[in-house]
Design a protein that fits this description.
alpha/beta, Rossmann fold, four-stranded antiparallel beta sheet, 12 strands
């Protein structure tokens, strides 16, 4: 893979629902082995954008490039085949099943027409161990018994188990305590260390600045800024989120605006 080309590139993405234009000409780069934080107020278009990448919605216009090649992602299965996995805020875990059963739900391993429990246990344990998830008592404990941070860890492990290249995380630390948040943020760093691209939606700017390599900001369906995290501070991100622009420059502890993606007065 050519690391000089972003793993995922969106160009001119537009999406409308009736008269409501949710996304307008969005250009976004998501490099491999980096954490890209997608920020924006409620209604800015963050969820619509990730659903276009995840195959839930099909853009009305624009182009998606994967490893530099144009692709059409028309279903969640098509996204998964490319290596795109999404961990939504509700996590989509079955509380009545254990960790192994959740990680293989819908993708169970069979041997002689029976569930191959041994192989699934080994694979699940290996994936959790590789991600540094050591806090669970047993991989056979029910998901209902896990803490919020542990549940998030299982959901991420389930996503990366299938040779994914990009993991999209929707508000992964929402409603978590300090210790559980730290656990999830360390998991995000581990994904980056393993060479995966991470696209994370978060309202918590402390979390964003703790793990992100890049920040992209949506305002009313338009991408108004994207750059290295060092080009932003918290105030400039809030200004972009709320007004679509920031007046200061990076030298003034503000943001070095991406000329292709900024809204100017």
């Amino acid at each position: 893979m050519d690391t000089t080309v972003p793993l995922l590139r969106l160009r001119g993405i537009c999406k409308s629902f009736g008269p409501v234009e949710a996304l307008t000409d969005v250009d976004l780069d998501v490099p491999a082995a980096q954490v890209t934080a997608l920020c924006g107020d409620n209604g800015a278009g963050k969820s619509v954008l990730i659903k276009c990448v995840a195959g839930i919605y099909e853009p009305d216009r624009g182009q998606i490039l994967w490893d530099g090649k144009p692709v059409h992602i028309r279903s969640a299965r098509a996204a998964a085949e490319l290596g795109i996995e999404t961990v939504y805020q509700d996590l989509a875990l079955a509380d009545n099943l254990d960790i192994v059963q959740n990680m293989f739900l819908g993708r169970e391993k069979l041997r002689h027409w029976l569930l191959d429990e041994d192989e699934m246990e080994v694979a699940a344990a290996g994936t959790l161990g590789g991600l540094g998830v050591t806090s669970v008592r047993s991989i056979r404990q029910r998901v209902a018994s896990l803490s919020g941070g542990q549940r998030q860890s299982v959901a991420v492990a389930k996503a990366v188990m299938w040779h994914s290249k990009l993991v999209i995380m929707d508000e992964p630390t929402a409603a978590l305590g300090v210790a559980q948040t730290a656990m999830v943020l360390e998991l995000v760093r581990t994904l980056r260390t393993h060479g995966l691209a991470v696209l994370i939606i978060s309202h918590d700017l402390n979390d964003v600045f703790a793990v992100a390599d890049r920040i992209a900001v949506l305002n009313l369906g338009r991408l108004v800024a994207q750059d290295s995290v060092t080009a932003f501070d918290r105030r400039s991100v809030v200004e972009y989120m709320t007004t679509g622009r920031a007046d200061r420059t990076a030298g003034e502890s503000g943001v070095n605006r991406d000329r292709d993606h900024s809204v100017h007065a």
